[in-house]
Amino acid sequence: MKQMSVVADSPVHSSSSDDFVAFLDNELGASSPDSSPDKEAESQDELESVRIKRRKIESIDETEGSTSEGIIKQNLEASVEVDVCTHPGSFGSMCIRCGQKLDGESGVTFGYIHKGLRLHEEEISRLRNTDMKSLLGHKKLYFVLDLDHTLLNSTLLAHLSSEESYLLNQTDSLADVSKGSLFKLEHMHMMTKLRPFVRSFLKEASKMFEMYIYTMGDRPYALEMAKLLDPQGEYFNAKVISRDDGTQKHQKGLDVVLGQESAVLILDDTEHAWMKHKDNLILMERYHFFASSCRQFGFNCKSLAELRNDEDETDGALAKILRVLKQVHCTFFNKHQDDLVDRDVRQVLSSVRSKVLGGCVIIFSRIFHGALPSLRKMAEQLGATCLTEVDPSVTHVVATDAGTEKSWWAVKENKFLVHPRWIEAANYFWEKQPEENFIIKKKQ
Amino acid sequence: MFFHIVLERNMQLHPRYFGRNLRDNLVSKLMKDVEGTCSGRHGFVVAVTGIENIGKGLIRDGTGFVTFPVKYQCVVFRPFKGEILEAVVTMVNKMGFFAEAGPVQIFVSNHLIPDDMEFQSGDMPNYTTSDGSVKIQKDSEVRLKIIGTRVDATEIFCIGTIKDDFLGVINDPATV
């Protein structure tokens, strides 16, 4: 009881070491009253017998001393722990470090890793820092992937158009998902088509990145899709984030990703989901395999499924993006000798991006006002120079109509006259597209 | 720790079960109701082992349901602070690892893993000592000490540590 009270008091004192020494002396003295100094004054005659006796007593003292010391130490440790423990996180409302029950929910939830797990900001940044070092040591970066329209396309069975119903007979077996690409998920009333090249894409990307899935779908859907993409659980093990795990509604954020923002690449088809992390984003051309998906985005054209067509396996969007990833990865790790930790993948990404349309001088002609600023920004990010007045240095005139003054000028001066889609395509594929595919037809 | 204790419960039974098999019905319903549940006081009910006594039923007005007070013996499992448990690792990540001992979910954070063990990422994430002699990965069996417990209606959460003498891996699946 005495010890307890001392320990309870100890936090009050600012410097506890002196107190502790006094306390220790006191305790040790109290526990070994037999070894008092007057024993030293025994006469020489009795030395022999006393020595034996002393030895006995000493050995008792020693054990007593060490046990009481042990108790003190333990108590001290406990008290220090209670004082020092910053409660870096919680699991089932208990501190993950000291086991103490914590009331009130604070920190960021990491439900996608394990139910009931929460971590505090400092702990997250500590984990990010330590992880960063080992990751860079393995020459890897982080990669956050979206599911729908990026890696695959899903539709409700009820939304299949009549021209698509033939697909029902062509679905692949769920017994070995690693071979197929079209799956019917009866219990979810859904059909899912994986984007061509996705398996090679993930395999290649996993060598360069630690990968996360981040989807706006709900958790059961996200896990089901992860199972289709990664049946062995080798890429996305406990790294599947769904909308239930995000911290903000209708937004995706890197706060739940345990990776430093300067080392994260994102692949998504929806730019506005990543308002805070646009610099990390690689925008993906949407994959619309099913008609319901086309309708959802307001396209009236036939779906790939209706046309019985699909993206190219070796030269589709994913294959093109993989080349960009390889380039970014290579640039990041091969850059001159500055410290790896100080490098920022966002800078690498923007420098790679700015070479796409490098050397192009663009002038816009009669582009719809609402679309102009974003188009101009896109072109500038891709490295093109945008002018407002006609100039001999202009290489491309971007217009939707061949009848404008600038369009005439382009034809006369033998400059490229292209549709705005030329810029958009370059933005998606990270490659200057052949201009002849984007020629504007004369209006009748 | 396991305990063999006597608990009591009021069982509501639908009139359709009245008849010759009333007792059997009552017992099977009891098992269905309580086995696998948790209570903060007693822990996880592993199995009903016997019926001590079934009291007189009370017919409820209006519904015809009958309430029987049932005293039953059962085996319960409850982890305690300071208890040493053996558990199977279910997940390893940079924050630490999760392990299971029956219904109990235990988290051992990397603060409570010995400092000489380092996290190794990859398709089989693990914690390994610098000389590679000890490895904790999924399906490893570990001996750990409980430093905190919380019992919910259906789950028991524990915080564990292996930063102490004689704790850690007891059976490594990789070497078997």
TrEMBL record, chain A:
Localization in the cell: Nucleus
Boundaries of every FCP1 homology domain copy: 136-307
SMART domains for this protein: BRCT (SM00292), CPDc (SM00577)
Top-level EC class as recorded in UniProt: hydrolase
Reaction catalysed by this enzyme: O-phospho-L-threonyl-[protein] + H2O = L-threonyl-[protein] + phosphate; O-phospho-L-seryl-[protein] + H2O = L-seryl-[protein] + phosphate
Keyword Repressor in annotation: yes
Stretches the record annotates as Disordered: 23-48
CDD domains: BRCT_CTDP1, HAD_FCP1-like
Record's keyword terms, sorted: Hydrolase, Metal-binding, Nucleus, Repressor, RNA-binding, Transcription, Transcription regulation
Entry GO CC: nucleus
InterPro entries: BRCT_dom, BRCT_dom_sf, Fcp1, FCP1_dom, FCP1_euk, HAD-like_sf, HAD_sf
Enzyme Commission number(s) from the entry: 3.1.3.16
Biological processes annotated in GO: response to salt stress
CC cofactor: Co(2+); Mg(2+); Mn(2+)
GO molecular function list: metal ion binding; RNA binding; RNA polymerase II CTD heptapeptide repeat phosphatase activity
Pfam families linked to this entry: BRCT (PF00533), NIF (PF03031)
Record domain BRCT: where: 352-440
Biological role: This promotes the activity of RNA polymerase II.
Subunit structure: Interacts with RAP74.
Protein name: RNA polymerase II C-terminal domain phosphatase-like
Top-level taxonomy: Eukaryota, Viridiplantae, Streptophyta, Embryophyta, Tracheophyta
